[in-house]
Each structure stands twice: as structure tokens, then as C-alpha cells.
Amino acid sequence: MSRIIDCHVHATGSEEASEIIEEMDRHGIDAIVMFSPYPGVMRNAYSGASSYSSKRQREVARYIAELQREYPDRIMGFLWLEPRLEDAVEVLDWALSDLELKGVKMIPYRWYPYDEKLLKIYEKIEELGAPVIFHSGILFGFEDSSRYCRPVNYEVLIKFPKLKFALAHVSWPWVDECIALWGRFRHAAQRAGRELQMFIDATPGTPPVYRGETFRKLMAYGAQDYVMFGSDSTAGSLDHSARILRADVRILRDELGMPEGVVRKYLGLNVARFLGLR
Known about the structure:
Elements: E1 5-10, H1 17-27, E2 31-35, E3 40-42, E4 49-52, H2 54-70, E5 75-80, H3 88-97, E6 103-106, H4 116-128, E7 132-134, E8 165-168, H5 175-192, E9 198-201, H6 208-220, E10 227-228, E11 233-234, H7 239-255, H8 260-275
Parallel strand pairs: 1-2, 1-11, 2-5, 5-6, 6-7, 7-8, 8-9, 9-10
Antiparallel strand pairs: 3-4
Helix pairs in contact: 3-4, 7-8
């Protein structure tokens, strides 16, 4: 049986590694991609980050690195990077090289993915060979920010062909735009004879009423090797991850009649390839 890997798990900053592993074992989850806490101060649950700092960015990086260090085969730490920091490139290099974090998480908030200041960050990530998960789609947790997160905004990454990235939430409600963008990157990769760099993180996002249709479109368009299971859970309680897993497997097996090979790819094999795991 292939491993089950949840590619989209958040940290609050108060978790203990042993407690996370207990939760994973309880729900049969073999590994998680775990994002460091946001390196800013939140005003309230539905507001934006009121402040952020390099000091805080380094603190959350160390925190997630410590959790990863205790269980390196099961907790894959990703740096939630605030690219507006003056020393963002330096912090990024330190977190991935010295702390050995496995990748990067970013949410466009008051910046567009194609902004000039982001290009040097993409260059560094590409140089380091790290994968990136971007938020894409409607954004409930930050103020007035969804316009930054349209999937087509990420077309700029075609200029960085060795940068492996995923758009989270299938960019809901812009699912068709996300799939079209994936097709754009597939076409570019085929023409250049290189590996396709774009993956799709199927973390909800998509409410249950849309989810079956979303998977149907993804599979019909040939994305079965690039769609990854994720849940948007917090690491201290993976009940939500288990519920999403069961619901997604039911859709893939029962509603769409997907073969077991496709289900296994979705639950872990595609994520493992995204992470560069063997």
C-alpha cells in the first residue's frame, strides 16, 4: 500500500512533534507537509496581517525545523515566507540550506505573483531546487486579498522552468482557470521536452457540492499524475484530514470509477514526486 501524504497542514506554533505523530497514526496518515506559522501578527480571524518581521520569520522557521528534525520521514517542514521582507531571499536561503526545510509556502497578500520583487525569490527557490505551494483562489482569512490569488497570475512562473510549484485549493472558485493554466504549463513542458513543473493541490477550497465535478474535470483533462491530496488541517488535530480523505476516495472510486492506481497517486505518490521523495 502506498503512503498517504497530506500536502497541506498548518501549524499553530504550539504543537509537540510526538502529539502530531500520534494524530497521524490515529488516522493512518503516513506523512504531512507542514507549514510554519505565518510570520506576522493577525488582528483577528478575518483580518490581514497587521505586521511582519524578519525576526518573526526566523522564529517560525526554527519552530517548524525542530518538529521536522524529530521525525524527518514524516513531517516535511515548509517555510511560510513573507516575500515583502527586505531580507526575504537571505532568510529563504538560510531556512532551506541551514535548517533543511523541504519547501516554501506563500499566500499572495498585497502582492501579485508577477510583481518584479518576486522574481529574485523565484530565482533563489529554483536555484535551491525546492518545491513551492501557493495559495490560489478565494481567500477567507485575509482582508480584501482574493484578487491577488487568481490562478492566471502565476503564469509568470513559466519563466522559471525548473521551479516546481503547486496551486492550492484547485484555485476555487476559478477551477477552470486553474486547469487551463495547468494545460498551459503542460504544453510548454511538452514542447521543450522537459518535466512538467506545475502540480495541483486539491485541498478544499472546493465545497462538497463542487468537489465531484472538480475531480471529474481534472481527470478528464489528464491531470491524474499531478493532483495531490491535502486537507487544510491544523497539525494538532487531523480529524478534518481524515474526513477529507474518506470523502475524496469515495468520489474517486465510487462516483468516478477511477482505478486503484489513480487513487494511490492522488493519496501519496504524486505528493512524493512533488517533494522529490523516493
